[in-house]
Amino acid sequence: MSVFDLTGRRALVTGGAQGLGEGMAKALAAAGASVVVADIQDSGADVAAALPSDGGRKHGFVHLDVTREDDWERAISETVQIAGGLDVLVNNAGIEITSLVTDVEVDAVRRMLDINILGTTLGLKHGLRAMRPGGAAGNGGCIVNVASVAATIAFPGIAVYSATKSSVDRLTRVAAMESGKLGYGVRVNCVYPGLVPTAMGAGLANDMATIGLFGSAEEAVAAVVELTPSGRLGTVEDIADTVVFLASDAARFVNGVGLPVDGGMGM
């Protein structure tokens, strides 16, 4: 059996209705896992319904506002019921609102803080509680948080977003240490995706032009590519396959790290 085989694992992916989250859900299912898609958008049910269900795997959808603790409690409980347990949690849900520092709006800052930091924190809280000994699942496992290359570089227009993703990195490392010290049996890691041409990525490029940092969205993308040794943007598959790696036995001794998946942009 391949060390990348996730047969028998049960996974929950937040923000799974589109973009990177949808790709991660598909990749985990392709590797053999049962996958529950969680999102505030109910179109995530369509993503779950399209996942391969051979071998008796059970997929499903749960409605989740990651900023609400009662939503997390229900989502974890429903995931355990649907999939038969929980071994992998991917905290992917997040937002980016572009702004120069001199033009930041309080409501936009609070929204990014709530979704990117509070949402990830609540995911860690309830994921660890469920997977630790005596929890609803109780067999250990792994958590993968989604940070960003923005946590490692000083790219204009995304100061607050960068700050929130830096926080995801710190949350990851402390949670990994607590899990180890307290015997939870849960590895906690994060990934730093580079720019990927999803709806969020395309929106960021357009916003860069709108606020005057670049002449066009195409110039913004070209600037990112110029900073990337691999000479291209990332793909959904690039990021999703890395999540599968971190969830698999191939990463059994990988813990408390931030793994760049950015083509070298943040080196």
**Total number of β-strand segments?**
7
Side-by-side strand order of the widest sheet = 3-2-1-4-5-6-7
H/E topology pattern:
EHEHEHEHEHEHHHE
Count of all domains: 2
**Secondary structure tally, helices:** 8
Query: What would you call the structural class?
Result: alpha/beta
- Largest sheet: number of strands, sense, barrel closure: 7 strands, parallel
CATH topology of the largest domain: Rossmann fold
Unreliable runs, pLDDT <50, ≥5 residues?
A: none
Distance between the termini: 34 Å
Percent helix among the residues?
40-55%
What's the CATH class label of the largest domain? Alpha Beta
The share of residues in extended strands comes to 5-15%
CATH superfamily of the largest domain: NAD(P)-binding Rossmann-like Domain
**Which of globular, elongated, flat, extended, rod-shaped describes the shape?**
globular
Report the CATH architecture of the largest domain: 3-Layer(aba) Sandwich
- What is the average per-residue confidence, as pLDDT, rounded to a whole number? 96
Cα-atom radius of gyration: 18 Å
Helices and strands in order, then pairings?
Layout: E1 10-14, H1 19-30, E2 34-39, H2 44-49, E3 60-63, H3 69-83, E4 88-91, H4 106-131, E5 141-146, H5 159-181, E6 186-193, H6 199-210, H7 217-226, H8 236-247, E7 258-261
